[in-house]
Design a protein that fits this description.
Blueprint lengths: L1 H12 L23 E5 L6 E9 L3 H8 E2 L10 E6 L6 E10 L10 E8 L1 H12 L4 E3 L4 H8 L5 H12 L3 H11 L2 H17 L9
Parallel strand pairs: 1-7
Antiparallel strand pairs: 1-2, 2-6, 3-4, 4-5, 5-6
Keywords: GTP-binding, Nucleotide-binding, tRNA processing
GO molecular function: GTP binding
Family: Belongs to the TRAFAC class TrmE-Era-EngA-EngB-Septin-like GTPase superfamily. TrmE GTPase family.
Length: about 210
C-alpha cells in the first residue's frame, strides 16, 4: 500500500500529467498523432434499447459527415436526429441521435463524435462496419479512449483508476469510493503530500550531491 502511495506522490511531484507522455502505452500500440482516429462501441455488448458508438481523432468530423444526412456537422455538444447511411452503398442503417464534440472540449481532448443508435446487433454491426470503411479510421484498442484522455491531460492517473473502479463497481460503497477518486479527491491528497515533502526537503537541498 505504501509503495503505491509513494509512487503517486512521486508522480505528482514531477509536475502536471499533461506535460508528460503516457507511460502506459504498450510498445505494440498504435502511436497517437495525426491520422489516428479510432472508433468503438462504448455501451457494452448485447441487445439493448440504445447503443453508443464513439470516435476520437482528427477524422471524427469526416466520419460523422460520411454517415449522416444532411452532411453538415451538428452544433457542438447538441444532440441531433440524423439518418445514418453506409458511405459506400448509401444503404440506410438507422435513425440515430448524433453528437459532435470538437477538441479540446471533449473526453479525450481530440475531435470526437457519438452515434446513439438502436441497440440491436445488426444495427450496431452495420454502423461499426460503415465506420471501418471510412478512410483514416480504425477500431480502438481496449481502454484507448481513456488512454488518450490521460495522454492529453484530461484525466490524471488517479482519475483514470477511479474511472476503471467506477465501471467495475458492484456495491454502493465501491461506487461512492470510485466516484470520489474520479472527482480528484485522491489526486488532490497526493498533490498536497508532494507539496509538503517539497517544502520539507528544501532546507536540505544544498547538501545533496549535484
Amino acid at each position: 500500500m505504501w509503495r503505491v502511495l509513494w509512487t503517486l506522490v512521486a508522480r505528482a511531484a514531477r509536475g502536471p500529467l499533461s506535460s508528460r507522455p503516457c507511460s502506459r502505452q504498450s510498445s505494440g500500440a498504435p502511436a497517437l498523432g495525426p491520422g489516428s482516429t479510432i472508433f468503438a462501441l462504448s455501451s457494452g455488448q448485447g441487445r439493448c434499447g440504445i447503443a453508443v458508438i464513439r470516435t476520437s481523432g482528427p477524422a471524427s468530423g469526416h466520419a460523422l459527415r460520411s454517415l449522416t444526412a444532411p452532411r453538415d456537422l451538428p452544433p457542438a455538444r447538441k444532440a441531433c436526429l440524423r439518418l445514418l447511411s453506409d458511405p459506400c452503398s448509401g444503404e440506410p442503417l438507422d435513425r440515430a441521435l448524433v453528437l459532435w464534440f470538437p477538441g479540446p472540449q471533449s473526453f479525450t481532448g481530440e475531435d470526437c463524435a457519438e452515434f446513439h443508435v438502436h441497440g440491436g446487433p445488426a444495427v450496431v454491426s452495420g454502423v461499426l462496419q460503415a465506420l471501418g470503411s471510412v478512410p483514416g479510421l480504425r477500431p480502438a484498442e481496449a481502454g484507448e479512449f481513456t488512454r488518450r484522455a490521460f495522454a492529453h491531460g484530461k484525466l490524471s492517473l488517479t482519475e483514470v483508476e477511479g474511472l476503471a473502479d467506477l465501471i467495475h463497481a458492484e456495491t454502493e460503497a465501491q461506487r461512492r469510493q470510485a466516484l470520489r477518486q474520479l472527482d480528484g479527491e485522491l489526486g488532490h491528497l497526493c498533490q498536497g503530500w508532494a507539496e509538503t515533502l517539497t517544502r520539507a526537503s528544501t532546507p536540505f537541498a544544498h547538501h545533496l550531491p549535484v
